Recover the amino acids of this structure.
């Protein structure tokens, strides 16, 4: 999981999310473009149980606030730290995407051990 398959700038964020019980499925640091899915801004996609989508999204906002990250509405420039959540009923899948947040490696630790 974390390591060479991840863009270097997003490793700490992915590790922190995993340590806090989120199942990350795709990520990028916005600078490295080794994969077709890499985007122009930092992002992490996480899969959650559909019935837990709102609770896990709100939990992520709270965990980030504890780290000093304020989630904002998406802006036209696409630069605001933002969260997007989606339910895909045909796939019975729920996805949370964290945009424009890269946590520093020096302070990666679990804020909450709940999955």
């Amino acid at each position: 999981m974390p390591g060479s398959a991840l863009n270097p700038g997003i490793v700490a964020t992915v590790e922190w999310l995993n340590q806090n019980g989120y199942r990350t499925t795709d990520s990028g640091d916005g600078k490295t473009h080794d994969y077709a899915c890499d985007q122009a801004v930092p992002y992490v996609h996480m899969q959650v149980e559909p019935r837990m989508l709102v609770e896990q999204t709100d939990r992520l906002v709270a965990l980030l606030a504890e780290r000093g990250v304020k989630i904002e509405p998406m802006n036209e420039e696409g630069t605001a730290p933002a969260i997007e959540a989606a339910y895909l009923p045909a796939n019975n899948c729920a996805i949370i995407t964290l945009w424009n947040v890269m946590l520093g490696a020096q302070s990666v630790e679990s804020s909450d051990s709940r999955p």
Notes: Confidence is low (pLDDT under 50) at residues 106-115.
